[in-house]
UniProtKB/TrEMBL annotation:
PANTHER family: URIDINE PHOSPHORYLASE (PTHR43691:SF14)
GO molecular function, one term: uridine phosphorylase activity
Gene3D superfamilies: Nucleoside phosphorylase domain (3.40.50.1580)
Taxonomic superkingdom: Eukaryota
All copies of domain Nucleoside phosphorylase, residue ranges: 31-219
Protein name: Purine and uridine phosphorylase
Amino acid sequence: MKQTLTDANFPRTADHRVYHLGLRPGEVANRIITVGSPSRANGIATHLDTEPKPFVLTSERGFTTITGRFRGVPVSIVSIGMGFPNMDFFVREVRECISGDMLIIRLGSCGALVDVPVGSVVIPSSSVAISRNYDFDFANPASTAEPPYRISKPAIADAFLHEERRISLTAFTYSFYSSQGRQTSFPDRNTDLIEHLREGNLNVSTLEMETFHLYHLAKCWSGGQPGRAVPAIPLTTGPVRPATSKTPPVGEATLERPLAGKDTVIRAAAVHLVYASRLSQGFITPSEVNALEDWTGLGVLTALANTEIPSDKLHVETGSVWEIKEKI
Ligand code: R1P
Ligand code: URA
C-alpha cells in the first residue's frame, strides 16, 4: 500500500481510489465482463476498439481492469482472481465507482457434472452455494450429527443472457478441492458429494467458485428482483445508500455522496467454460482454452453491447477514460 487511505468504513485514497481494486469513478464502465485470470482479460481486450486506447490498471492486490469501447459501447473487463471473497471485493468496490445500472457477466471456467465434452459452454440460470460445514468434525466424523457440507437455496441469474430460459444449475464452492468432491490427502468426507449433486432433486450441471455470490449480491442490490427497479425501501444500512447524484467527472467526485443513484439495478449473468469433465476426468488443452475464450469473449462483449441501459442510468462520459475527445 503506497497511498494514505481515509475512512475505515469504506477506505479510499485522497483521489477517490477504492482500496483493493485501485479504481476511481470514470475508470470502470456500466457494462462489465469479469474473469478469473489476467490472460483471459487481455485476450478479450483484443476485441476492443482502438479509439480511445483502452485504459489498463492493475491494483497492488492483483485486480486488473481494462476499460474501453466495444463497437462504440463503453465496457470494462475486470480480472478478479479466484473465489467469492474476490467477487465480493469486485462487486462492492466497483459499485462505488459507477453511477447508474451495472450489467455484469462472469466468463469463467468450471468443472462439468453433466455429460458434455470439455470445451463446452454452459449458461447457468441459477446457482447454489456448497459450503464446508466448520461445525462438522472432519477428523472424527462419528462424533457429530452435522453434515460435512451445506447446500444453499438457489440464487437466480438475470434473464438478459437467456433468450429462452433453460434451467441449468451451477454449484459455487468455497474450495476447488473438498467441496467440489476432489480427493486430496485431507479427510474431507466428500466421496459421495458428486453423486449427491447429480441426483434428480439437485441436478447440478457445473462446479465453480464465484457465480452464486455474484447472483446473490446483484439480487440484494436490486431489491430482490434481478433486472427490475428497486423499491423505495432503502436496500442497505451499510456503507452504500442509494441516492440521486449527478456524477462528477473524474477527480471531482465528492465521496460523502454515494455514486450509485436512485432505483439502480445490478443485472448479473454467467457463462461457464467447461475446463474439466468430472465424469470422464478429461481436462481442456491450452490451445482449446485459447479458442474457447476468444469466441466466448467476443460473444459476451456482443451480448453486453446489445443490452440496453436507460440513458439516465449510465455513468457520465465526460472525464471518463472512455470519453472520445475531439482531435484538434
Ligand atoms: C479454479 O481453477 C478457478 O477457475 C474457475 C473457478 O471459479 C475458480 O476461480 O473460474 P475462473 O476460470 O474464472 O478463475
Ligand atoms: N474451475 C473449477 O472451479 N472447477 C473445475 O473443475 C474447473 C475449473
